[in-house]
Amino acid sequence: MSTLDPALLDEALALVRELTIGRASLRDARDRLAPLRERWPLADPAVVRDEETSDGSVSFDLLLREPAGTVSVAYSPAPALPWPMRGAIRYSDHHLARIGTRTLRVGEALAALDFLWYDHDVLARLVDTGVIAAELEAHPVELSDEELQAAADAYRRARGLLDPASTGRWLAERGLSAEDFADLVADTVAVSRLRERVVGDRAVDWFARHRASFDTLVVAWTAEGTPPAGREAALAAVAAAVRDGRAAGVLRTVAAAAAPEVRDATGPVPTVVGGMPVTAVVVAREPAEWDAATRALVERAVFDEWLAERRAATDIEWFWLPRDRTAPAR
């Protein structure tokens, strides 16, 4: 017997019926779930949207937690398939995609990306996706239609999608529908708003404590030989190398974004520039200033710090690969 409030079950059924009949988007469904979350927070209501490929019908499931497990409330209007039969044509859990007549298995895909799984930055970003989604489900942000339209227009402009035809091709190449695109834009805006909420008024104080990390480093480098340690001599050596047609140059980078060996260098050090092994020397360090560019970097750093704390506090289990190769991304 369920320990959930009967009133919650009644409202859950009414809501899931309205969402299904109205073919609501996932974003709208999450927005409409907010009153249930506020009234019954211990039930931790969550919504799942499914679109059946065989008939195009939409179904919603509303998940409600209770001490002994999870209750699922679903509704399927006739003649749509009832939820136990949705997706009745199942693929193996080990199948990732069909490409032509060839089925790509998860193991093959992961083997092709094998080197990535040794990069904990990649693992951390995958975990971040789940952490952010959970935070936005628990504490949604309000997004206006005007804000979403402006974001969609900016997203298309940034990718050169300036007309319906180019947008349609871009979506088709990625297997996305117009609804998927709307959800993608909404998620992008929601993450931006979440970052604003997390950062709040912490940016200035955080910058004061980490100011040196945002200094600008002026780095002279050459692919042949070793540049002198002194500023003028190093710059002259680089200029001479360029005149002779050899690979050399000067770059400016924020200290936090520089390779560790460059950031901590006190003299010439081996590093990589543009994928090419070089020897580099820091010839100047310009103190950071609190401007718009620096503020954007600081806000990203504060948000990344928040994400790292959430990752450390989250139980993570990886599937398909051996456990000794999928240590938690801490």
Mean pLDDT across all residues, rounded? 83
Helices and strands: which structural class? alpha+beta
> C-alpha Rg, in Å?
26 Å
Strand order of the largest sheet: 7-6-9-8
SSE arrangement:
Blueprint: H1 6-21, H2 26-39, E1 46-51, E2 58-66, E3 69-75, E4 95-99, E5 102-105, H3 106-112, H4 120-138, H5 145-158, H6 164-173, H7 178-199, H8 203-209, E6 216-222, H9 231-243, E7 248-254, H10 260-263, E8 269-273, E9 276-286, H11 292-312
Antiparallel strand pairs: 1-2, 2-3, 4-5, 6-7, 6-9, 8-9
Highlighted features:
330 residues; alpha+beta
Architecture overview:
This protein is 45% helix and 18% strand. A four-stranded antiparallel sheet has the order 7-6-9-8. It has a three-stranded antiparallel sheet with strand order 1-2-3. A two-stranded antiparallel sheet has the order 4-5. It has helices at residues 6-21, 26-39, 106-112, 120-138, 145-158, 164-173, 178-199, 203-209, 231-243, 260-263, 292-312; strands at 46-51, 58-66, 69-75, 95-99, 102-105, 216-222, 248-254, 269-273, 276-286. Strand 2 and strand 3 form a beta hairpin. The chain is an alpha+beta fold and 330 residues long. It is elongated and about 80 Å long.
Task: Give a summary of the structure in a few sentences.
With 330 residues, the protein is of the alpha+beta class. Helix content is 45%, strand content 18%. Helix 5 (145-158) crosses helix 7 (178-199) and helix 7 (178-199) packs across helix 11 (292-312).
